[in-house]
Write a structure and sequence with these properties.
mainly alpha; 156 residues; 0% strand; disordered N terminus
């Protein structure tokens, strides 16, 4: 009697590749750590744990080339993937800017800086008290907060 054919999930092919390499490296010791657990569940767990490396075959390859002597679990394999060297990146060259353009931008920035209106962080409190002094309707709490901000005694 033959065993039923195992149907492989195409989205887990990269996990099957990792398992094949680990079985060759560790033999029965690798699968023995999952004895009594459905292998489909183990595959899905590895896929979940390693999901950030699903599109990074270079990290997976590096991890497989640097396996320790003892069989690994998914979190240990993830650490190996994370230790893979990052690909070298080329630093972008500074864009060329004409001296005239640079001068124009500096002038624009200087105009912005020179036209800044000084901020009065307590101006709102003075305005609330001025409105109250003119007889306009001002809530008790607004008047109280304005007095506190200006450091004046709270009038009751």
């Amino acid at each position: 009697m033959t065993s039923p054919a195992v149907q492989h999930d195409p989205s887990l092919m990269w996990i099957y590749g990792i398992f094949s390499a680990c079985q060759v490296r560790y033999g029965r010791r690798f699968l023995a750590q999952y004895e009594g657990v459905a292998i489909e569940l183990v595959h899905r767990d590895w896929a979940r744990v390693l999901r950030e490396y699903a599109c990074n075959p270079a990290a997976i390859k590096w991890a497989l080339e640097n396996l320790p002597d003892a069989p690994v679990l998914a979190p240990q394999f993830r650490q190996l993937c994370g230790a893979a060297p990052r690909p070298a990146t080329r630093q972008l060259e500074r864009p060329a800017v004409s001296p005239a353009r640079l001068s124009k931008v500096r002038e624009q920035l200087q105009q912005i800086v020179s036209h800044r209106v000084p901020t009065d962080s307590k101006g709102w409190a003075r305005e609330v008290l001025a409105r109250a002094d003119r007889g306009e309707a001002v809530s008790y709490r607004a008047k109280q907060m304005a007095l506190e901000v200006l450091g004046k005694a709270v009038r009751v």
